[in-house]
Structures are given as structure tokens and as C-alpha cells.
Sequence to fold (1204 residues):
Amino acid sequence: MSHATTHEHDHHDEKPKGFVKRWLLTTNHKDIGTLYLIFALIMFFIGGAMALIIRLELFQPGLQFVQPDFFNQLTTVHALAMIFGAVMPAFVGLANWMIPMMIGAPDMALPRMNNWSFWIMPFAFAILLSTFFMDGGAPAAGWTMYPPLVLQGGKNVAFMVFAIHLMGISSIMGAINIIATVLNMRAPGMDFLKMPLFVWTWLITAFLLIAVMPVLAGAVTMILTDHYFGTSFFNAAGGGDPVLYQHIFWFFGHPEVYILILPAFGVISEIIPAFARKPLFGYTAMVYATASIAFLSFIVWAHHMFTVGMPLGGELFFMYATMLIAIPTGVKIFNWVSTMWQGAMTFEAPMLWAIAFVVLFTIGGFSGIMLAIAPADFQYHDTYFVVAHFHYVLVTGAVFAIIAAVYYWLPKWTGHMYDEKLAKWHFWLSVISVNVLFFPQHFLGLAGMPRRIPDYATQFVEFNMISSIGAFVFGFSQLLFVYLVWKTAKGGEKASSRVWKGAKGLEWTVPSPAPHHTFQDNAPVNDADLAHGSAH
Amino acid sequence: MTTHRIRSAFYFLIFLMAVWLPAAQAELALNLSEGVTEFSRDVYQLHMIVLWICVAIGVVVFGAMIYSIAKHRKSKGNKPAQFSHSTKAEVIWTIIPIIILIVMAFPATRVLIKMEDPKDMDMTIKITGYQWKWRYDYLDEGFGFLSTLDRKSNLARQPDSGIDPETVPNYLLDVDNPLVVPVNTKIRFLLTADDVIHSWWVPALGWKRDAIPGFINQAWTEILKPGVYRGQCAELCGKDHGFMPVVVKAVSKEEYRQWVAQMKGEQVQQAKMDQKTWSKADLMAKGQEIFETQCASCHQKNGQGMPPAFPSLVDSATVKGSLEGLIHTVKFGRPGTAMSAFGNILTDSDLAAVVTYVRNAFGQRDDTVQPQDVAAVTQS
Amino acid sequence: MSQATESTYYVPHLAKWPIVGSVGLTLAAVGGALYLNGDTGPWLLYAGLAVIVYMMFGWFGEVIAESEGGMYNQRVDTSFRMGMIWFIFSEVMFFAVFFGALFYARMFSVPWLGGEGTGYATGALLWQGYEGVWPTNGPANLGGEFETIPAFGLPLINTLILLTSGLTVTLAHHALKKSNRRALVGWLLATVVLGFTFVYLQATEYIEAYHELNLTLGSGIYGSTFFMLTGFHGLHVTLGAIMLLVIAIRAMRGHFTPEHHFAFEAVAWYWHFVDVVWLALFIFVYIL
Fold:
């Protein structure tokens, strides 16, 4: 495999000087990836700060710190910030950095649009967060923005809707770019069934994004017109139905859940083989499982609304369809375990996070199966059991995978090894505290505590207290992560081009740090460099 | 390296004990309640079946993983195998989950069909959700009432109330007027809402169902054991979503008949209240009481409100303006805002009292409103 | 086109237009929100839209210059094609939402409110006397009695106009492939004229709806779905017609070759998409 340093024109390897040229006007996939990742980290801490205020208020019963209305604003914006501001941009950042490197492309297919996809995000979130400082405060109807409650939001409705429109534009352009890159920019010899799974999962995710972000845009547009223009989409008096919104929202919302987790599956499928020193088990099955999950995500949406009073036939259909998702998801987990089986494992930070992902995501999957059982969901729905479930899949799922990916590729990005000892501290503090934080929430939900309440009955005191303690330890542990990343960026032991002995794929054939422009296009790919070159 | 790992595990154990021992002593509720209806017991069974299946799968999968982590490590000199697929294995772990899912689907379907089949009901109760209270209408008996958060809880839950919630019995789970129902009776519930979506939930009955404005949802129950069962609104419905509990008091059929007779007597009394002419002092006293239970959660006790969502009443144009206008606002609400139509909730004498109170206390206007004045204002 | 550019994927550097676009979008969003809330006039919204238009001129101008300068190889062209196809797909999904709302209202919410099927308690207890028959402004008769626009008047004429415009844009494409520039420009301009005629007729229809038929956005679910579907479609026709006009001007300036004319094709695809959406509208909104 030939790489940039030997072929590229000299001026291509120079990074533009000055903040504006380097970051504001950039078209370089690596710089844009870095921007996405930094933005995601900032939003992770803003959303996390909101979560800590929530947990602080819930530390004991009674209202000590915030008013109920502000509490609702916090839960709403916490979710929006974490989903649209932290997890999604983090994965887009990883895609930007890694996909061109993994498929041997000179850059993303549409580099100028790539810049725009990113530079909409900070503005969109500035608009959303600014509502906190307005008369009447931020949106407080939950991230699901159900009408009619959301229509009582007053002035924040328009800001919220437009902010979501902007995020949608950004996501759609980002997804188009990824599709065009993967379909059109692969180096000769990089056949579809030789692509790394991270590329596969992102390709499928990008299709999901293009299919559902416009649906969300449509849903919030109807909220806008119901609020400002007198339409009756969600008003029974005019022949509409509040539940119509929920159908549209969850038609977006369920694929959205997989948008958040499929790239995580990809990351884990890269890391486990590298540290087990063994090829990924069942590569093609993994690809088909990912595609099946994506397909199923379009026909299960109403399992989020079993309690709205759907006709029996609908309830049965959505229950069965939801249960089916367990099958391809199970295939993935079995394949990861089989990849570890009879390997020669070492347990550096990326592997630790990946193993924690497999275990804890599976726990989230188990509660998911329980929630799929419609009659039982009549009990679980809208309780802390659900809160525990989706934090297991999103925090110990998506976020853990992002952290694993950062440890895995950080040496490639910065050219330095991170501090393994500190990374272990970060891991153990996080993995213990996150379970202290979320596991008791299962009990709270089963015992009858509804979600989204600022104050609770006294039988819920102990577990709330434990959960809050876990939250603070988990939250502050992440400062360690920031320090670690910053330290690695500044300096440290030089990383070799391969970095991890068992790692395969084109990204490990270029020096660390990866040159500003990696590949000349049309340079042919050598099967031996690939994880899935000729093994199957 | 190894000592480090052992040390971590040790600390983790200490931590677990620190967490679990006090928890076990306090006999905390860890699991779903079995409840007091056939449905809730079915759901409990279903919950336990699926939970144990998950635990079993977890033991197998995590067991294999832990074994692999312990054995197949480089530090033990393990040489990596190079196998990368097995169609047989893939087929097995596709088929087995399918079978397990089918096993789960059968009881789930049976229970669900039973829940969604409200046939041969003995009585019907209409439940209406309001921000932030419930109204129960006994359709067969022709009376109904509001059910709001109990006074003690309401005082304690105010920010900086200085009251320790632990000292309040059934903190946040008590109401002024519980829903009284007979045991061993099939009750049909018709659920709707007046403003936003609420969700009516009593864990002991085994279900929750959304109350959606403009639509009626159905659910049913048959309570097998007398007792008081508590729950809460389960769908985010605004500021005081956490403060609209549900309390069901299940009594014997005989007790229920007595209670119905008593309620009907009160209803006759109530009608008389709406006929008579009230003194201003009585109106003010009653008005203040109603204001504090029904209005103060938004407009605040001192009438200052929480602008802009909940406007101040002090010297407000509506409060000081025409009396008809004020009565109209209170009786029919302000569509598109959080101000609901209290004419659906309160009797004419209650409305007269609260309008008199608001008018005098916040509008500085010396007026007296009688129930007949309220009745005279119609929707425009 | 030289051999060197043929093998090199063109990666632009120092793109200034995206950040201009972001500022434009932000100004428009904030301005729009302030205007809707009645806090300011629409000037900030207009300023934002002006910046977006400026960005489009600049951005497309740069791309056109690069394209005409021979900097794009076949692969760049393919990227653009994929971009356009998936952009149109996202638009399809956006319209699907509003069609979905229409079908839901007609098949579920309106019959339920009228007491059909599982909605019998809803009809009997909350909305006595409501029939639940389409077209409807709901049980509360929101916006008052209204009439609908008959399908086989203006809407039929508009259907014929759009179908004809689909034909003319295809004729233009054939002319381009045969290097017949006069015919190309002629058919393009014909398409633009047909497009704007459609928009004009839609506008007269709206005026009639508001003034004669009492059919407004506030006419319950019928008014909501009718105006949102036809309104968003009309907006897309307007944008498509402007895009066609730009292509026509470029054709007059001698842009495009029989082999390389991605911009033309992209706009033609967009125009066909708008056409197909209209056919669905004509069937589901006007006829049925």
C-alpha cells in the first residue's frame, strides 16, 4: 500500500496556518473529524452537567435545588444535548477520521459540504441552549416533545423547532457524504465484503439517517404550525390526534436509536479482533445482522407507545416485530464472544472498554426484551426501568464504544501513546460508578417510580441516593479522560504505525500521526493489510 | 499487574457489600409488585419468566466470556486460533433464540388479549386527567369529584418548605379524595384528558394507560383484595407531573353501596349550595381554600404567578376587568394555554367563591359573585 | 481534460462558503423564531435568507468555475450524483410524513372521533353528533364551514401543466445530448414558464380557498393537511423553477457538454421528483 508521504505533492501535507484557515475553512476530513469530536466532548460535559443537577435534586426527596419546571427543562435538554450533540457528532467525527483512511480514499467525497455539516452544529446548539436564558425557559416537554404539552412551551417552541431543523440538515448532509464516500471512494481492491465493519455499520447508519431525519423535521414542523399557524395536526377538536405525533416521532425515533448504536457495533467489531489477535468471527453474518437490525428498526416504532391505547392487532404486531430484533442482536453478541474464544487476549484500555460494552450493552438488551413484552410494558412504561434500560444501551453502549474508539485510534491521530495506567484508572472508576448509577434504577422502576419527576415518595430514597453517588463519581471520572486525551495530544511515547500488534486494516499502514492527507486516490489495496482481505 | 487486579476486585466486593447490606436491611422494594388483580399477577408471572430466561442466557454468554477472558489470554501463552466462521454455529444461535422468543410470545399474547377484552363489565368510571389532578366520574351513579395531592404532601413538597418528607405519611402518594371502588367487580375505565396527555397508573392493578385529550381510552380491572393502592401519573404533563398521585380505595361491595349513598346525599347538598345566596365572608373563606388547592400551584398563593407561563393575578387586566370576562376565563379556560376550563371541574358555588376571592384579594375590586352569576355566563 | 486531473480526485481547500451558509441559516432561524414570537419584525429573517442566497451564488459559482475549468473527473461527478439522489430521497421522506399524517387522519383519527371501531366511546362521550366524514375540520368545526377545491378544475389543469413540463425538460435533455443549444434553451425556458404558471395558478387557488371557500390553514385537519402538503409542494416547484432558470442561463452562456452536464441532470431529477409528488397529491388530496 502506498501512502501519502511518498506520493503526495508537498503543499498537500502542510496544515493551513492560523485558526480560521485551519479550522473554520477546512475541508480536511481529519480536521473536521477532530472538530466533531471536540464538539461532542463539550456537549457531553454540558449534557452531563445537566444530568448532575438532576441527580443532585434527586439525591433526597423534597425539592432542594431546582423548581419542577426547571427540572423538566433539564431532562429535556440533557437528552437533546446528549443524543444530537454528543453521541451522534462523536460517531460522525470517528467516521470522518477513519472511513477515508479505512477504505484508502484521499478524503471524504464532498469535502466542502463536510465542513458545512459540522459548522451548522455549534450554531444549532447555541440556539437550543440560548432558550435557557429566555422568558419562560427552555423546552420542558421531554426530548420526545409530545404535544399538546410541548405547545405550552411559549416562545421556546420556534427556537427548539428551528434548532432541530438545523441539526437535521447537518445530519443529512453528513450522511450523504458518508454514503458517497463509501460507495464511490474506495481504493481499487477494497470490495464491499472486504470493508471493515466500522465502515459497514456507518454505511447502514447513514441510510437510516437520510430516511428518518426528514421525518423528525416534518414532525417538529407540524408542532410549529400547530403552535403558530392554527393547524390541527395534533388537536382532536380539529380532527387531528396527539398520538399521530407519537407515531411520526417514533418512526424517526426508533431508527434513531440504531443510528446511535450501529456505529458502536462497528467500533467493537474492530477492537475485539485486534486484542484477541484473531479474525472477527462471522464477518458476513455481522454485516447481514446489521442490515437486518436496520430494516427491523422501521417496523417496531409503536413499542414506545404500548400504553396509548392502540388496537389489539397493532399491539401484537409491534410486540412480535420488536422481539425479532433480539435475533440479529444476539448474533452480534455471540460472534463477539466467539471472536474472543481461543484468542490470545491482552487487555489494554480499548479492549477493556469493548468488553465492558459487550457485557453492559447485553444487560441493556435483556431489559429491552422485557420491555418488548407488551402486557409487561404496561407496568414498565415510563418508569425508571426504562431510564435504566436506555442508559445501559446508550451510556454503557454507545458512549463506552466511543471511548473505546478514542483509546484505540488516539495513537494514530496524535502519534503518541496514551498513559495506560491512567487509562485503567479511568476505566475502572467509570465502569464501577456507571453501574452504581444505573443498575439501581431498574429497581426504582420496578418498584413504581415514574421517570421525569423531580421529587419522589419515600420508599425510593435509598436507591436514588446510591444512584446519585454513582452519577457524581462517573461524571467526575470523565475529567480524567479529558486530561488523558489532552496529555496524549501534547506528547508522550511515540506510537508506531501499527500501534496495536493484532490490529489490521489500512489505517495501520500509514505512519502515526497519520499525515494530513493520507492516500493518493486509486492506489491499489493489498489484501494482506486488511482484516477481512481473503479470510473468507 | 495481577495484584493490581486482585486489589480492584477486592475493593469492588467491599463496595458491593456496603451498598447491599443496608439495602437488604431496609427491605427495599426491588421487584415488580404482584398486585391485586388477575392481570397484575399474570404480568408478574410474565415478568419473572422473561427475567429468568434473560438471567439464564446471561449466565451462559457471560460465563463463556469470563472463561475465555480467564483462559485465552496472551499472558498465559495462549496461541490464537485462526477460525473465523462456522455456519453451523451461526445457524444454532439463530434458531435457539427464535425458539426462546416463541416460548415468550405465547403467554404474552394470551395475557395481552385478556387485557384488551373489556366484556361483561359491572360498572363504568370515567377518568379525566387535568394539569395536575384527576377527576373521577361514576357514570352509572351520576356523580363525580376531583382528586388532588393531599394537603400535607403539598406543603412539604414546596421548595424550602422545611418539612422532612419522611415525616409525611405516604409522601406524594396521598390525595384528598381517593377513587373508591368495590372489590370483585369488573370495572370499565374510560380515560381521557382535558389539557395534555396524562397516564393513569396504579402498579397494584398491573397497568397504566394514557389519558389523551379528545379521545377516550379503555381499560378494565377487577380488584380481588380490599385495600388502598397508590400510583402516580406516568406521562410527563408539565410542571407538577410529579405531584398528581392516584389513590384507589378498594372496599367491600356493601361498604361501596354505603359510600355511594353518602356521595349522592352530598350531591343534593351541593345542588342546594348552588341555589342559595352566599354572604361575602363565606365566599371569601371558601374561595381562599379552593384557590390554594386548585390555583396556587401555578398562580402561587400570593397571586404573583410564575410569568410568563403562569401570569400574575395581582392587578391583572383580566382580574380587574369585566366580571363576566373573569368568570368566563375561569369557567371556560384559555385555549392554547395552561389555563384549563374549571367549569368542568368545580361547581357553580365553588367558582363563585374562587372568583370572589381572586377579585377581592388580587384585583382590589369589592365585588361579590353568586353561583347564579356563574351559571349565567355561557361560552362565547 | 488532462490525464493528471483524470486520476486525481479534486479536494478543494479553504472553503469559505459553508461558514457563510451557517451564519445565514442561524440568522434565518433566530430571525424567524423572533418574528413568529412577535418580538421583532421579519428583517432578521430576511437578512438570513439573503445571506443564504448569497452563499448559494458564491458556492455554486465556485463549483461551476471548477467544473468548467476541468477540475472534476468522473469520480467527482459520481459523488455529486450520489449526493443529489440521496438528497432527493430525504425530500421524499419529508413529504412522506405529511402524506402519513393525511392517511392517519383519514383512516384512524377522524373515524375514531366519529365513534367508529375502537373509538365508539370517544364519539359517544366526547363528540356526540360528530359524523367523522372526510373532508372535515373536526368535531369542533374549527374555522367554520368550508368547501373544498374540486379536483377537476384548476388542479387538473395544474396536473397537465406539470406533466407537460416533465416532457419539455426531457426534450431539453435530448437537445443537450444532440448539442442542439437553441432547442435546449427553448425547451428549458418552456419548462420554466410552465413551472411558474403552475405556481401562479396555485396562488390563485389559495386566494379562492381563503376568500370564497373559507378553506384556511385553521380549517381543522383538512385545512392543515391540504395547505401543508400543497404548500410545501408549491415551495419546491418554485425552487425547482428557479433552479431550471439558472440552468437555462448557464446553457445560454455555453455551459454543459453532451457528455458532462451533471447540474442539468440534477435539476431535471428534482423536477421529476416534484412532478411525482404532485401526482400523489392530485390523487390523495384532490380526487379521493
